[in-house]
Design a protein that fits this description.
InterPro entries: LRR_dom_sf (IPR032675), TPR-like_helical_dom_sf (IPR011990), TPR_rpt (IPR019734). Keywords: TPR repeat. The chain is α/β, with parallel strands linked by helices. It has two domains: 87 residues, Serine Threonine Protein Phosphatase 5, Tetratricopeptide repeat (Alpha Horseshoe); 236 residues. A nine-stranded parallel sheet has the order 1-2-3-4-5-6-7-8-9. Strand 7, helix 12 and strand 8 form a beta-alpha-beta unit. The protein is elongated. The C terminus is likely disordered.
């Protein structure tokens, strides 16, 4: 075992960690109750910075090696050292130039990453500097899956970071709750929220509209998704009247009363009816006449054939980037869109 231990050490020092671990395994195979094999394997893991594997190896040794072993105390010490190393957080972010931390590192960490509203994000609790740098980017995304719990879940992360939230996704079913899940929009402060997705079931049009009033000032991108045919459809005009700054809107509805007000900010509109009946020709022409900046229109089902012909006669913008584009796709919106 002494020769195996010496060879294992030489292999590890030369960077041949797999072969070194193989020799450490052989030592343990020869004598499971000997501390030598566990100490050697743990040491190799630590050389690689694999503290969790080292901790597991030392703990296994402490279970199988008798306390009378001459190196039992060493096993305890190495295990404590590995735990201490695992718990260390390197606060490198505070040593980097502010511009690099804010424009490169933090966006890289949080890119396409939605935080959970009821689970602390470890990146925001490394040190006092980490949340400061993250919040200077002012671009946090949160996702909330509302489920019935007793007692109710407390969304402590929203309470702490709500003013920095730029993207919020809420998914719930009304019948699951004694209290209204839309309380999130009026009980928490979102002073600069531009992107909101609500995936819901069983809500009345008036309930959703009422909740949107609390955040309508900053809202520019809105998705209202329903996954069944039993949820009442929402009025397009009411949504646009309440959220007057919308640039992009996606929703399921067949309730489109003739519009009387212009919505010059809206550029993208995606709609689906709750039936197989297409949007009426007169309704769609009225809609387009009140959305002068619309450049993208996605409808399901495919509209009246007269509408398909008429839209190409509408005036186009001189800038090619702002010219109107229309898609009519045989698909349905869903909460997974």
């Amino acid at each position: 075992m002494t020769k195996l231990n010496e060879r294992s050490a030489a292999l590890a020092n030369g960077g041949n960690f797999d072969l070194a671990l193989s020799d450490a395994d052989a030592i343990r195979f020869i004598d499971l109750a000997c501390s030598l094999g566990y100490l050697k394997a743990g040491s190799i893991y630590q050389q690689q910075g694999r503290q969790r594997e080292a901790i597991a190896m030392y703990e296994k040794g402490l279970r199988l090696v008798p306390s009378s072993d001459a190196c039992y105390t060493t096993l305890q010490m190495r295990q404590a050292e590995a735990v201490n190393a695992e718990n260390k957080c390197v606060d490198f972010i505070s040593r980097l130039p502010l511009e690099i931390a804010v424009s490169v590192i933090i966006p890289l960490v949080f890119h396409n990453h939605c935080l959970e509203a009821d689970v602390p994000c470890p990146y925001l609790y490394v040190s006092r500097i980490w949340p400061q740098r993250a919040l200077q980017c002012n671009s946090l995304s949160f996702i909330i899956f509302c489920q019935y719990t007793d007692p109710p879940v407390q969304f402590q992360e929203l309470e702490r970071f709500g003013e920095h939230v730029k993207v919020l996704w809420i998914e719930f079913e009304r019948t699951m709750y004694d209290e209204d899940p839309l309380f999130i929009l009026h009980d928490y402060d979102f002073p600069s929220l531009p992107h909101l997705t609500i995936s819901y079931y069983g809500y009345e049009d008036s309930d959703v509209i009422s909740a949107l009033q609390f955040i309508q000032r900053t809202l520019t991108h809105l998705k209202l998704l329903t996954g069944d045919n039993y949820t009442p459809e929402i009025h397009l005009g009411r949504v646009l009247d309440v959220c007057s700054n919308l640039v992009s809107l996606q929703l399921s509805t067949s309730i489109i009363h003739h519009l009387t007000v212009q919505y010059p900010k809206l550029t993208h509109l995606t709609m689906e009816t709750g039936s197989d009946s297409p949007f009426p020709y007169d309704t769609m022409m009225n809609l387009l006449s009140h959305m002068p900046s619309l450049v993208f229109l996605d409808l399901y089902p495919i509209p009246d054939s007269r509408f398909l012909t008429a839209i190409w006669t509408l005036p186009q913008h001189e800038d090619p980037a702002l010219q109107r584009k229309y898609t009519f796709c045989p698909r349905q919106l869903s909460s997974s869109s």
